[in-house]
Amino acid sequence: MRTLDASFFQNGKAGLKPQAFSTQEIERDSVAYVASLTANERDLCEVQWQMYRKQNSDSAVGLRAFIVTFCLCDAENVRMFDSGSSDKRLTTEFINAMDAIAKMPSRLISRAFNAASELNGFTESDVEDLEKNSEATANGCGNGAMPQQPVSAVASG
């Protein structure tokens, strides 16, 4: 077994590989990818979701489309839609993409959401916290701790 040294962790993007998922509802024999997020990207995703909810009557509707839009990427793990770096405002491009994705077939978006959740360690508890508009790490999840139960294990069961 190899022991990782400081140079591995100083790389900053080590081990980030996207996850393919089927997009057969859109085009036969096609796939899209969800990104493997860095720790900072995951934090930004959670902070921006909380901000978006507060600006939209605290509705949890749209969480799956938000996370899918945030995580969609190319085969090189480069995110397709820039949400911006602010915790005050999302980019217009991101909001437009999220609105379009929210109108896509539920089965497709659920598959993408489950892939993004599993790849990035979103647990069922993390998703519940995001849906309740509580702080994303209030229960100790989402902070790098071992995941409780992956969302996909619950959502697909």
Name its key features.
single chain; 157 residues; 7 helices; 3 strands; disordered C terminus
Offer a concise description of the structure.
The chain contains seven helices and three strands, in the order αββααβαααα. The chain is mainly α and about 160 residues long. Helix 3 (about 65-70) packs across helix 4 (about 90-100) and helix 3 (about 65-70) packs across helix 5 (about 105-120).
What does this protein structure show overall?
It is a single chain. The chain is mainly alpha-helical and 157 residues long. It has one domain. The chain has 7 helices and 3 strands. Strand 1 and strand 2 form a beta hairpin. Helix 3 packs across helix 4 and helix 3 crosses helix 5. The chain is globular. 30% of the residues are buried.
Number of helices: 7
The helix/strand class is mainly alpha
Q: Main sheet, how many strands, which sense, barrel?
A: 3 strands, antiparallel
The helix/strand series, from N terminus to C terminus, equals: HEEHHEHHHH
Q: Give me the side-by-side strand order of the main sheet.
A: 1-2-3
Can you give the mean pLDDT? 83
Rg, Å, rounded: 16 Å
Secondary structure elements and their pairing?
Blueprint: H1 6-10, E1 19-22, E2 31-34, H2 39-55, H3 63-71, E3 72-73, H4 92-102, H5 106-120, H6 124-132, H7 151-155
Antiparallel strand pairs: 1-2, 2-3
Helix pairs in contact: 3-4, 3-5
